[in-house]
Amino acid sequence: MIFLNIWQDFFGVSNDTVFTVFTTLSIFFLGLIIKWCYSKYKKTKKNKNIKKFIIAQLEVLSKTSILQRDKFIEYKNKLREERIQNIELVKVANLNTRYIRDIKFDQIFEVLVLSYKNKKRNNLENFNKLVKQLDLLDGIINLSYDAFINTHNLLSSYENKWNKNIEEIGDFHDKLLNDMTYKNIDPRTDPFLKEFYSIYHDWTKMDHRLDMYIAIDSIINPILEKARATQPNTFATYILRNLLSCIDAFSNHKNLREIIIKEFDNFSTQLETIAKDFSEIKNNI
Q1: What gap in Å lies between CA 52 and CA 108, rounded to an integer?
Q2: What's the gap between Cα 34 and its chain centre?
Q3: In sequence order, what are the residues at sequence separation of 6 or more whose Cβ sits closer than 8 angstroms to the Cβ of residue 186?
Q4: Cβ distance 236 to 127 under 8 Å?
Q5: Beta strands in 30-70 (DSSP E)
Q6: Do the beta carbons of residue 15 and residue 21 sit within 8 Å?
Q7: Closest of 146, 144, 148 to residue 266, by C-alpha
Q8: How confident is the prediction along the chain (285 residues), in pLDDT tens digits per residue?
Q9: CA separation (Å) from 150 to 147, 154, 260?
Q10: What is the DSSP string of 150-196?
Q11: How many CB atoms lie within 10 A of CB 160?
Q12: What is the DSSP letter of 147?
């Protein structure tokens, strides 16, 4: 009441006017406070939802990284088998960083770092680790798929080269045998052909004889050894190119397998580290 009288005495403003202005200002400032509180509530709720989503995604990425690691191990173990086979690389579903990346990184930074009054340094380390491991995971996904495609194509090209030349060696055998039979010539009179026919006929009795990992020591290397031992020999010289081409295809095939095994071994190790880091980040949020 005294306050109202002062306004009336000094400023000539009626009590009703002062009361009206005071009430209006009070409502205005109360509205601002409510609006600020509601905005803060909405932001806090949004950050909590983002935090829950990040935790859920880290859980998924940690588990799927291990699953993909296991598929990499299966793939490289298949590559270790010394035989020709069609190997597929299984891509694990849900191993995708896109869902976390749909959130702006400044939002993630706010949720993981700025929203905490304490432990900002540790949370900053978690944020940096998260960004680093997301980039690394994307890199591994892309590199592993590219490596698989390139490996598949190269192995197929070496197998095609092998098949072409082993087929020409078979054609050499059939044509020469027919020609000599027609001319009533015994191939055993030639030192190279005698060994060639013996090795070739033993090889035809083998299971999976066309597989280069079986044929290399059962026909190619033995015939090459005889070809070199009986030089100069027209027949040995004629077939030498096919023998060397088979050896080249086999060597490239085997060397590439060994390189890719090491590469996927490295991918597997990196995925295991990524899964561990994702789990640690999740537990520290």
Answers
A1: 12
A2: 51
A3: 180
A4: no
A5: none
A6: no
A7: 144
A8: 444 455 454 444 455 554 565 566 566 555 656 665 555 656 667 778 888 889 999 999 999 999 999 999 999 999 999 999 999 999 998 888 988 888 888 888 888 877 665 555 678 888 899 999 999 999 999 999 999 999 999 999 999 999 999 999 999 988 887 877 777 777 778 889 989 999 999 999 999 999 999 999 999 999 999 999 988 888 899 999 999 999 999 999 999 999 999 999 999 999 999 999 999 998 887
A9: 5, 6, 10
A10: HHHHHHHHHHHHHHHHHHHHHHHHHHHHHHHHHTT--GGGSHHHHHH
A11: 11
A12: H
Q: State how far the Cα of 184 lies from the Cα of 187, in Å rounded to an integer.
A: 9
Paired tokens of 181: 């039979």
Query: Which residue has tokens 């806090």?
Result: 44
The two three-digit tokens of residue 98, written as one number: 């896109």
Separation between Cα atoms, residue 216 and residue 252, nearest integer Å: 13
Pair 237, 89: CB distance under 8 Å: no
Q: Where are the domains of the chain?
A: 160-255
DSSP state letters, 236-279: HHHHHHHHHHHHHHHHHHHHHHHHHHHHHHHHHHHHHHHHHHHH
Integer Cα distance of 237 and 230 in angstroms? 10
Considering all CA atoms of the chain, what is the largest pairwise distance in Å, rounded to the nearest integer? 143
DSSP string, 19-55: HHHHHHHHHHHHHHHHHHHHHHHHHHHHHHHHHHHHH
Q: And the tokens for 255?
A: 């060397």
In terms of Cβ atoms closer than 10 Å to its own Cβ (0-12, 13-18, 19+), residue 83 is exposed
Vertex 29: Cα angle to 23 and 30 (nearest 5): 85
